[in-house]
Design brief:
Two copies of one chain form a homodimer.
Chain A (H helix, E strand, L loop, with lengths): L3 E9 L3 E3 L18 H4 L2 H6 L9 H6 L6 E7 H4 L28 E5 L7 E2 L5 E5 L3 H12 L3 E4 L3 H9 L5 E7 L7 E2 L11 E7 L5 E7 L1
InterPro entries (chains A, B): DHFR-like_dom_sf, RibDG_C
Protein name (chains A, B): Dihydrofolate reductase family protein
């Protein structure tokens, strides 16, 4: 049976999935790149930013599970861009097309949850962004139809992933706990008391200093 | 040089050091014993509750570091008892003498931070509770004088430990991250943004499922 999976979702030791003050220059706000340095150092992460080096150890082993078997992703609007409210640049030369350039690292349909739908964006490499105003369950149905027999990835950010967990729509989750204290931003864990009743939780520390957490639904 | 140390301080995956609704029957509120099952299973923890069994593995290795080299402890009033406000039972047969019976597992002077001082309580086995209305720095000075050349342990709870961390009074800290989500209670990490600038942070998972975190001041 196809699964709903989460991969490479980084949180700080105090549980924040992103910082405060998100801008075009700072997609994770005051967190900067600190939540994702572990991933950029891997072969998987290096490829995303156009490098051909990168480590091939434990962190890369986890990171590379991001893509195989995935047929669609669902992401929150905050992951697609820092704008809020109605889109103001549609049809202009500056139209926002996501953080990832013309060939985003998804290579599947991507459903962006937003209260402000807009026409789909077909990118290179198989990624098409669809903008939908939907509940988590409705969005998952769309994504599963698009994915066929393949799995669906929940891409975050934190508040959106929290909603999917609260609705019990996630089967498998890989989190990466980074040993920093952000102090402010979006918390992943709020309102999820007792989640351990639904998931087995395993911790694997990496020599890089991060701790990989794997949550498997019972 | 004598150190200020923290040992066996358990937090949930969402960062709570204790739950909500603390009572005489539930010292950790709705958390119950879940934050400390890992410790009660060890030889060290078994001895505290009067058993002679217990594991001798990784968890016990960490747990037993609690006592050697310690000359005094500082604890918050909430660790001593669930009462708030003025003491109402002094001199009565029901006078509260802590959770631990007549021979508490401290065996040193213990300074209890409270806005309501009361006469010292001399217990068996070398533990004497002193009740002081003091800032963290003032309490530490008292405890260091009592400890002589030995180290001082900061005993918690969460809000009190947070105050000592904010005042940069802690040298070494052993936390135990338990894979449960409490959802509510007292958070350890609030207001400590950037703590990693002052501490090296190492994570060691135990086969029991908990993750030991060791923070060493740079």
């Amino acid at each position: 049976m196809a699964l709903v999976r989460v991969h490479n979702f980084s949180i700080s030791l105090d549980g924040f999935g992103t910082g405060e003050d998100l801008t075009f220059e700072a997609p994770f706000g005051h967190a900067g790149h600190r939540l994702h340095e572990w991933m950029i150092a891997t072969r998987f992460g290096a490829a995303i930013v156009g490098r051909t080096d990168g480590t091939r150890g434990v962190d890369n082993l986890f990171a590379e599970r991001h893509s195989p078997g995935i047929g669609a992703e669902i992401m929150g609007r905050g992951k697609f861009g820092p704008q809020t409210g109605p889109w103001t640049d549609l049809g202009t030369a500056e139209e926002w097309r996501g953080w990832w350039g013309e060939n985003p690292p998804f290579h599947t349909p991507v459903f962006v949850l937003t209260h402000h739908p807009r026409p789909p964006l077909e990118m290179e490499g198989g990624t098409t962004f669809h903008f939908v105003d939907a509940t988590p369950a409705e969005a998952l149905k769309l994504a599963q139809e698009a994915a066929g027999d393949l799995d669906v990835r929940i891409g975050g950010g934190a508040s959106m992933l929290r909603d999917f967990l609260a609705a019990d729509l996630v089967d498998w989750m890989h989190l990466v706990q980074v040993p920093i204290l952000l102090g402010r931003g979006q918390r992943l864990w709020d309102g999820l008391e007792g989640l351990e009743d639904r998931f087995d939780i395993e911790a694997t520390p990496s020599p890089s200093g991060v701790t990989h957490l794997v949550l498997t639904r019972r």
